Amino acid sequence: METITQQLVESMIRIERICTVCGRSISWRRKWARDWERIKYCSDACRKRGISTRDRHIEQMILDLLERRAAQPSICPSEAARRLAVGSDWRPLMGPVRMAARRLQRAGRIDITQSGRPVDPDTAQGPIRLRLRQVGLQL
Ligand SMILES: [Zn+2]
Question: What is the tens place of the pLDDT at every residue in 81-100?
C-alpha cells in the first residue's frame, strides 16, 4: 500500500523529461521512478535510432535557412526537407526534419508556430512553421 507522502514525493520529482532524439515529452512510468532524472529516450525506437551526424546536419540546415530569412522569418519544415533531398523524394525526410525542429525548439533556438503563435509540439495538430526564437526583442 502506498502512502499519501510517497505519492506526493513522487509527483514532486516528476519534472518534465524530454526525449533527446524526437524532442517529445516523455510520459512518466512507474518502472522508471527510480531513474526518472536519467531517462533520456521516450521509447526503445528512439534509443535505437539515436542522433546521427545527418540529424545534426538537419538542425544546422534549419537554423541556416532561418538566419537567411530576415524579411519573412519563418519556414515550412518541407523547405528544409526539400533542400536536404536535393532532387530525390523529400517526403521521407519530413520525420527527421520534424524531430530536428522539436530538438531545436526544446533547446530554445527556434519556435514552432501555427498562425504566428508558438505552439506546444507535443499537441500541435496540422501544418506548423519554424522561426528563430527572438530573445528579448519586442516588436
Ligand atoms: Zn523519442
Answer: 999 998 899 999 999 999 99
